[in-house]
From TrEMBL:
Residues 27-37 have a biased composition (Acidic residues). Residues 42-51 have a biased composition (Polar residues). This is Uncharacterized protein. Residues 1-51 are annotated as: Disordered. It comes from the Bacteria. It comes from Paenibacillus abyssi.
Length: 51
């Protein structure tokens, strides 16, 4: 079977930014309950001041 000219090579796919494995701790998405409460409190105070 002939390869299509539009098909990416294995090397192209592996070096694509979206296909890279995540680096531990680089983009930390978890946060503590205290951090969540603080963010919620800040958001609530910003909403009240803009009204």
């Amino acid at each position: 079977m002939a390869k299509s000219g539009k098909q990416a090579s294995k090397a192209d796919v592996q070096t694509t930014e979206l296909n890279k494995m995540p680096v531990s701790g680089e983009a930390e998405t978890e946060f503590s309950a205290e951090e969540a409460a603080e963010a919620f409190k800040n958001k609530q105070s910003n909403v009240r001041t803009s009204e």
